[in-house]
Here is the input.
Amino acid sequence: MSILDGISAAYIAFGAWRGRANGLAQEGYRLFRMAVAFGAGCGLYGLISDLLSRTLSIGGDVSGPVGFASVMGGSWFLLRKLRIGMQAWIAARFGAHARVGGLIAGGLRAIVIVLSLVGVLNLAGRKEAGGSIVGSVSSWVMP
Here is the structure.
C-alpha cells in the first residue's frame, strides 16, 4: 500500500462522513454531477486531446490530462443548473433515508473524485500512481 492509497482511503472516509452530515439530497446531486462529469471526461477526452495536440502542437503527455480535465470541468459546470430541482426531487422521494443515503453517496462521490485525480496522473505518465492500488483501479476504469 502506497502513500497515495492511504491518502485516498482517508479522503473517501472523510467524504462518507461529510455525506452523512449533509444528507442524501445534497450528496446525491453532487454524486450525480461528479459521475456524469467523470463519464463525459472518460468518453470525450480522446477527441479533445487529439484536437488540442493538432491545434496547439502540444504532446500527448500534456494534451491527454488537459483534455480530460477540461471536458470534466465543463460538464461539471453545466450540471450546476440542475441543482435546485434535483435536490428537491431527491429530498421528496428519499427523505426517510437522508443520513444513510448521504453516507453512501458521499463515499461514492469521493471514490469518483479519487479515481479522476489518479486518472489524470496516469494520463500524465506520473509514476506515483502506477504502483498503488488506486492507480490500478483507475487504469481499469479509464480508457
In short: The chain has a mean pLDDT of 85. Residues 3-141 form one domain. The chain has one domain: 3-141.
